[in-house]
From TrEMBL:
Keywords: DNA-binding, Transcription, Transcription regulation. This is GntR domain protein. One of its GO terms (molecular function) is DNA binding. The keyword DNA-binding applies. It comes from Nocardiopsis dassonvillei (strain ATCC 23218 / DSM 43111 / CIP 107115 / JCM 7437 / KCTC 9190 / NBRC 14626 / NCTC 10488 / NRRL B-5397 / IMRU 509).
């Protein structure tokens, strides 16, 4: 970024903090006059802020402050992966490390309603698996972990871990389907009974409900360990 961009940020930051998201910025002409630069320069730098998720521009309505969401992290990690700086494995390991910390905070903060919601997501996973609805099962799994971030109530961690989960969405969906397929084949193809891929979440909820940080961390580690134990070195049923 250049000095013109820095000057624009410094000019907008106090207004953003005072007025909050969805408030309207002054016009490009007004900003250009205040900063002593051209409208073209202001427009270009507003475009950079828009790409970063700090503002949104609507034709005919103006430019508004907004709050970055996890899609920016997804976009950034996607670019870094394409350029060879990171891979899915490193993102997945970072997510796991952060989730072990997150679940301990959740154990400190969770109330009865939080626990009820978490158990509901586990039940949704079990029902979706029994019905053969892979998409619904994955969405319930994603919702379970996202709820833990929300309970922990740290916007920085929630932002990055949610972005990691979005970046890994296809990978995680494939691994979940693979784990369930392996479990089904190990059981001789029978559909009776919940799968460990789903029920491994239950001890996490139990520990959170008991406000036991150590047990919550251990249960989360066991969750990821089981995931790897089931899928490591395995191939899907169709041989791909």
């Amino acid at each position: 970024m250049d000095t013109n961009f820095d000057a624009l940020v410094e000019a907008l930051a106090p207004e953003a903090r005072a007025s909050g998201t969805e408030s309207r910025l002054m016009t490009e002409r007004e900003l250009a006059e205040r900063l002593g630069t051209s409208r073209a320069t202001v427009r270009e730098n507003l475009g950079s802020l828009e790409m970063l998720g700090m503002v949104r521009r609507t034709q005919g309505a103006g430019t508004f402050f907004t709050k970055p969401d996890a899609s920016f992290v997804q976009f950034l990690f996607g670019l870094m992966s394409k350029f060879g700086h990171i891979d899915d494995g490193s993102v997945e390991r970072a997510r796991e490390m952060m989730e072990v910390a997150v679940v301990q905070e959740a154990a400190d903060r969770a109330d009865e309603e939080d626990v009820r919601v978490l158990r509901g997501h586990v039940e949704d996973m079990v029902r979706a698996t029994a019905a053969g609805d892979a998409e619904a099962g994955h969405e319930a799994d994603y919702a379970f972990h996202k709820k833990l971030f929300q309970i922990a109530d740290n916007p920085v961690i929630e932002f990055f871990v949610d972005g990691m989960s979005l970046a890994l969405k296809d990978v995680l969906a494939h691994k979940r389907a693979l784990a369930l397929d392996i479990e089904a084949r190990a059981a001789g193809g029978g559909a009776e009974g919940p799968r460990r891929t789903d029920t491994v979440h239950t001890p996490i909820v139990d520990a959170v409900e008991a406000h036991d940080r150590s047990a919550a961390a251990a249960a989360m580690v066991e969750h990821f360990t089981l995931w790897r134990r089931i899928t490591e070195g395995a191939a899907p049923a169709d041989g791909r």
